[in-house]
Design brief:
Layout lengths: L1 E3 L2 E3 L2 H4 L4 H16 L1 H7 L2 H8 L5 H9 L14 H15 L3
Antiparallel strand pairs: 1-2
Helix pairs in contact: 2-3, 2-5, 2-6, 5-6
Length: 99
């Protein structure tokens, strides 16, 4: 751990954790790219998530995860297959409607 201004600070990679739904969102995005929106939605079954966690799903994190797959301006996307891009766009459209 480093020091800054005489105070200890923690390294981000080890001590910062996001909400569980962000992990679910990332899994869903990968599933959607590979298998489509319906399969991803089945994985993210909101009722099962609520039963297991006691929390409501958070579509905001699903949208933000898809945005993370977009390339920076002027750069090429690492998702280059036309079918995968179509499935990613379909997944994004389905998530935006939930906001």
């Amino acid at each position: 751990m480093g020091r800054r201004g005489g105070r200890r600070r923690r390294r981000l990679g080890r001590d910062v954790h996001g909400p569980a739904w962000l992990d679910v969102a990332h899994c869903c995005t990968n599933i959607a790219i590979r298998h489509g929106t319906d399969t991803a939605q089945s994985f993210a079954d909101a009722d099962a998530y609520v039963v297991r966690t006691g929390r409501e799903p958070q579509p905001f994190f699903e949208v933000m995860d898809v945005v993370g797959f977009l390339p920076p301006p002027g750069r090429r996307s690492f998702v280059t297959d036309a079918g995968e891009l179509a499935r990613l766009e379909s997944w994004l459209r389905s998530r935006v409607t939930l906001l």
